[in-house]
């Protein structure tokens, strides 16, 4: 969870209101302390009355970086107080492994936040739902109907055709503008291109539409509307609301965040409802169509323990979280990966030499080539290491008192895995702040991102690991390989591409990713 206290004025308002509740606050926080005689993890210094450590996150420094600096001072496991709530922050792979093996079932649930209540269909979205029969049922359905190896192979034509079409669209941009520069290079904005491509793949898989590009069969206006609402969803999902830490402020909406979240939720539900009704009409008219995931859910929803929720709510929430997570993560990682490559010309050269050696210039890249592109896959791993899609993962909560590395952690404590800090551990990685894909060719070549190696956990670990790892990696590798194979790439200036992170759930860079492109294959291959 990214913490966005926007300014000091809001903090002062909170303090003024909360002072009246201090006796209650003092009683509740003291009652939650570890049992007598049991050792607690160290608590970071500098806590304010009432607010705890919230003030540490109101400045320009991003939360995962601020918490990483606290880890340097207090160790790989320490606690902070977010108002009335105690939080354990873990920045060490050994502790992450211990938690995810010895206590996995006790850390597999989610805290209840205003964002998950308002935008997560009251905690029914898969990624936000508490651990239990409902979550297991939805997870099983997703794993079998959309994200199993069998199903991903059946849907292979979607990702392949979308990538081919998007490469052709990029080539078309070049042909239409090549005369504008004496060198024959054309400037393109790749972050938007990545976003449109990954969105098309996911929305076709989930609801059977294609919204962007020359072969779009849907409404581009509808696609932009969906992209905007998903962007707002991801942004507000990473927004901290004061009442999350100080529940007695629940009657206030300081900053207006909850009103904005409700607006996003309404727009998101409106889109999902339109798609659901379209699928119902299609099913009634054609006797059932399970080409996409929403169609499959309509047919199988009765098999799931809905925990009192309506079937429509579960279908809509599940489809929206699949589209948002499945499209957002590949777009974020592709943007970081290409930015890093462009800032390290030797990496670009080595990647293209590998592609020429394995694929050649007489045909296009296909999925069967990916297993032979060791350096390209190392680039993706190294990008995940330096810029994980969620630097603090998704918050968890202890559902039972636990002993972790001789420390007692009380039930209801929140848990943050500082993935960003954990994956830059100098005891694990040489030159941990440098972009060096070669590290995964040599001594670390066996380490992967599948949740088995705790030194590299961008998709999470344990029961709550992201179910879409295989799908995401297929898209990432194939898109990046096609871009590097199809085009000569160069920076638009002598300055390095801006790598400044932006506050939010994914911390994606705020600036556009503009580069020059020119074709490196014969015209008949586009």
Overview of this protein structure:
This protein is of the alpha+beta class and 526 residues long. It has a single domain (8-525), classed as Cytochrome P450 (Cytochrome p450, Orthogonal Bundle). Helices cover 48% and strands 7% of the residues. It contains 18 helices and 9 strands. The chain has helices at 8-19, 22-31, 63-74, 93-102, 114-119, 133-145, 149-154, 156-177, 190-207, 220-237, 242-245, 257-286, 293-300, 311-342, 345-358, 374-386, 419-422, 469-486; strands spanning 77-82, 85-90, 186-189, 396-397, 402-404, 407-409, 414-417, 487-491, 514-519. A 4-stranded mixed beta sheet has the order 1-2-7-4. Helix 10 (220-237) crosses helix 12 (257-286). It is globular, with a radius of gyration of 24 Å. The model is unreliable at 1-9 and 30-34 (pLDDT under 50).
Please outline the helices and strands.
Layout lengths: L7 H12 L2 H10 L31 H12 L2 E6 L2 E6 L2 H10 L11 H6 L13 H13 L3 H6 L1 H22 L8 E4 H18 L12 H18 L4 H4 L11 H30 L6 H8 L10 H32 L2 H14 L15 H13 L9 E2 L4 E3 L2 E3 L4 E4 L1 H4 L46 H18 E5 L22 E6 L7
Parallel strand pairs: 2-7
Antiparallel strand pairs: 1-2, 3-9, 4-7, 5-6, 8-9
Helix pairs in contact: 8-9, 8-18, 9-14, 10-12, 10-14, 12-14, 13-14, 14-16, 14-18, 15-16
């Amino acid at each position: 969870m990214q913490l966005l206290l926007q300014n000091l004025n809001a903090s002062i308002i909170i303090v003024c209101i909360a002072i009246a509740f201090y006796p209650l606050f003092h009683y509740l926080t003291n009652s939650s302390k570890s049992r007598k005689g049991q050792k607690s993890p160290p608590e970071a210094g500098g806590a304010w009355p009432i607010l705890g450590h919230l003030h540490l996150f109101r400045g320009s420094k991003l939360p995962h970086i601020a918490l990483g600096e606290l880890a340097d001072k207090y160790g790989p496991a320490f606690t902070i107080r977010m108002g009335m709530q105690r939080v354990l922050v873990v920045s060490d792979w050994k502790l992450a492994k211990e938690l995810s093996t010895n206590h996995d079932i006790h850390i597999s649930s989610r805290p209840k936040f205003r964002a998950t209540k308002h935008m997560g269909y009251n905690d029914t979205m898969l990624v936000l739902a508490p651990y239990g029969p409902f979550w297991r049922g939805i997870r099983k359905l997703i794993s079998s109907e959309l994200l199993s190896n069998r199903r991903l192979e059946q849907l292979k034509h979607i990702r392949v055709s979308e990538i081919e079409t998007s490469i052709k669209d990029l080539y078309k941009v070049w042909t239409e503008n090549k005369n504008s520069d004496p060198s024959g290079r054309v400037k393109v904005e790749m972050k938007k291109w990545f976003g449109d491509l990954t969105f098309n793949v996911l929305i076709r898989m989930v609801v059977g539409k294609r919204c962007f590009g020359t072969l779009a069969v849907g409404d581009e206006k509808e696609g932009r509307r969906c992209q905007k609402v998903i962007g707002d969803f991801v942004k507000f999902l990473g927004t901290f609301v004061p009442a999350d830490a100080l529940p007695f402020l629940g009657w206030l909406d300081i900053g207006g965040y909850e009103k904005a979240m409700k607006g996003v939720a309404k727009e998101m539900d409106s889109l999902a409802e339109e798609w659901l009704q379209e699928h119902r009409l299609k099913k009634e008219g054609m006797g059932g169509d399970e080409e996409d995931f929403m169609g499959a859910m309509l047919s199988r929803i009765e098999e799931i323990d809905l925990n009192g929720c309506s079937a429509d709510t579960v279908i809509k929430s599940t489809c929206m979280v699949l589209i948002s997570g499945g499209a957002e993560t590949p777009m974020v990682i592709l943007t970081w990966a290409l930015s890093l490559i462009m800032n390290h010309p030797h990496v670009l050269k080595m990647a293209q030499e590998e592609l020429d050696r394995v694929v050649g210039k007489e045909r296009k890249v296909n999925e069967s080539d990916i297993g032979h592109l060791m350096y390209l896959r190392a680039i993706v791993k190294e990008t995940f290491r330096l810029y994980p899609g969620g630097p603090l993962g998704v918050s968890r909560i202890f559902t039972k008192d636990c002993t972790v590395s001789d420390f007692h952690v009380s039930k209801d404590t929140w848990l943050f895995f500082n993935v960003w800090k954990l994956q830059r551990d100098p005891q694990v990685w040489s030159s941990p702040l440098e972009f060096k894909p070669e590290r995964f060719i040599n001594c670390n070549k066996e380490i992967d991102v599948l949740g088995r190696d705790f030194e590299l956990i961008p998709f999470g670990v344990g029961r709550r690991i992201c179910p879409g790892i295989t799908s995401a990696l297929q898209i990432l590798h194939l898109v990046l390989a096609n871009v590097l194979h199809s085009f000569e790439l160069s920076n638009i200036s002598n300055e390095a591409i801006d790598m400044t992170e932006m506050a939010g759930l994914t911390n994606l860079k705020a600036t556009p990713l503009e580069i020059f492109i020119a074709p490196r294959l014969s015209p008949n291959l586009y």
